[in-house]
Design goal:
By secondary structure, this protein is of the alpha+beta class. It folds into 2 domains: 1-206 and 315-424, Rossmann fold (3-Layer(aba) Sandwich); 216-313, no CATH class. The chain has helices at 34-48, 53-57, 177-184, 188-205, 214-217, 235-243, 246-259, 296-309, 331-342, 356-361, 364-368, 393-399, 402-408, 410-417, 420-423; strands at residues 2-10, 13-19, 23-27, 60-62, 66-69, 87-95, 98-107, 116-124, 127-132, 148-153, 163-168, 207-210, 264-268, 280-283, 288-290, 316-319, 348-352, 371-375, 382-386. Strand 16 (316-319), helix 9 (331-342) and strand 17 form a beta-alpha-beta unit. The radius of gyration is 24 Å and the shape is globular. The protein starts with a strand and ends with a helix. The structure holds adenosine-5'-triphosphate and magnesium ion.
Length: 424
């Protein structure tokens, strides 16, 4: 599980820290920085794909001009806070009972230079896995060129002492180092390092950024395609895979009955001439509704359930505007579904929301990791504060409803009053 993300001069965060729980709800006004947080997670995910920094931040095309990766909003030019030279992200996490900390500092470069890694390190339980040389930036080591990064690797095998290897600085070391270790070392320590690196990469790889689109969910898909796309692609084949297991199917039917007024009692998966399938919902009275005419909200619910119950769920979901397209009366059920699934312990979710009601329905443990993203008047940087760390909040929420406080802008006001120079 990811436990903390720290930003240094990334997008509109000069210095900020986001504490993460199983469900981390982000609230905040428009343009406060919620989606910039999503960009930071996407950056980490991009690393796991083995891309160069230019690909991660720009765009990645494969043959025939097919877009494979959309890059980070604002690309290279708008990645750093107010045109600063470098940005850094630090992620703390737990994996298999070990505590990891990954740090990456990047120089996006100018129109004439490529983006490159300036500092990078990975620690496991405070023990070095790898770290760029303390004097790594090329300015200070004469023999190192800007395209190279010197990296310290712990001793083991033929290496009695910590040794230094040179890596290409245009791609994160995290996605290059495994291969290098395989080439050069076969000792136990190298095996341990490789294992931890593989776990870290797999955690970044297992991130999904759901941005559901009814049009994509209505597209037929091929049986066996069991990974739900970010826009809800492959919905029909993921649902079909769920329905193959009677227990999972039962859970699916129960949830859809609760979440929509439709009395769907069964699902069918008719095949077209190309072998593709499109889900149909069977109502109690026998009426059959295909995904083409199911409502947008019903499809959104189906996709969320599919994301959790499908055979290949991700370990981390970032969900923008959770309440989108849903009736407020159904929100608490959606939240219940999410909280129930993440309480099983292998799925984590960060979600943004503008809905005051959602805050009201949060369980105490989810409220614990809900955060406010905000900007102060006349300041250009954005900040993040855990809602329960807002001054006086614990007393105030005993007397006032969280949704009303959200609606009235109380959280943002409280943060302004917390800054003495702004108040006077
Ligand atoms: N490099 C940068 N330096 C400073 N500020 C930036 C930078 N890049 C983006 N921003 C600021 O971030 C804002 C956008 O933030 P973001 O898209 O995360 O908002 P949001 O909280 O998701 O809003 P909404 O609720 O409307 O989606 C921009 O309006 C801009 O002010
Ligand atoms: Mg946004």
């Amino acid at each position: 599980m990811l436990t903390k993300l720290t930003f240094e001069r990334f997008k509109n965060f000069e210095k900020a820290e986001l504490i993460l729980g199983p469900l981390s709800l982000l609230i905040g006004t428009n343009a406060s920085g919620k989606s910039n947080i999503r960009d930071a997670f996407r950056f980490l995910h991009g690393i796991s794909r083995g891309y160069t920094l230019a690909d991660i931040m720009g765009e990645k095309y494969i043959e025939a001009g097919v877009l494979q990766w959309r890059g980070i909003r604002g690309g290279l030019r708008e990645a750093t806070y107010r045109q600063a030279k470098r940005f850094a992200l630090i992620i703390n996490f737990n994996v298999q009972g070990m505590e990891g900390r990954y740090f990456i500092r990047v120089e996006p470069g100018t129109t004439r230079s490529q983006p490159r890694v300036v500092t990078e390190s990975l620690y496991c339980d405070k023990e070095l896995i790898f770290a760029s040389h303390p004097r790594a930036p090329y300015e200070s080591i004469k023999q190192v060129e800007p395209q190279h990064l010197k990296v310290r690797i712990p001793p083991g095998g033929n290496y009695r002492k910590e040794h230094v290897e040179t890596f290409i600085a245009y791609q994160p070391v995290l996605s290059q180092i495994e291969e290098r270790l395989v080439e050069k070392r076969n000792d136990d320590k190298a095996e341990e390092i490789r294992h931890f690196i593989a776990e870290t990469i797999s955690m970044f790889d297992s991130m999904r950024f759901l941005d559901l689109n009814p049009e994509a969910m209505r597209r037929p898909s091929l049986p066996g395609q069991t990974i739900l796309g970010d826009q809800g692609e492959n919905l029909s084949s993921v649902l079909q895979a769920i329905c193959e297991d009677p227990r999972q199917k039962n859970a699916l039917v129960e949830w859809i009955k609760e979440l929509t007024p439709m009395d769907a009692t069964d699902f069918k998966f008719p095949t077209d001439q190309m072998g593709r399938i499109l889900v149909s919902l069977i109502e109690e009275n026998g009426q059959r509704i295909s995904a083409y005419s199911a409502s947008d909200g019903t499809l959104r619910f189906l996709a969320m359930i599919a994301a959790f119950l499908g055979p290949e769920p991700a370990r981390f979901y970032f969900f923008e505007e959770l309440e989108n397209g849903l009736h407020p009366a159904r929100l608490h059920l959606l939240l219940q579904l999410i909280e129930q699934q993440i309480s099983k312990g292998n799925i984590q979710m960060v979600a943004t929301s503008h809905s005051p009601q959602l805050l009201r329905f949060l369980s105490p443990s989810s409220l614990d990791s809900a955060s406010l993203v905000y900007r102060l008047p006349n300041r250009s940087d954005a900040r993040i504060r855990r809602i329960l760390d807002i001054p006086d909040v614990r007393r105030v929420i005993k007397q006032h409803d969280l949704a009303n406080l959200h609606e009235s802008g109380w959280f943002e006001d409280a943060m302004v009053f917390d800054e003495p120079e702004i108040v006077k």
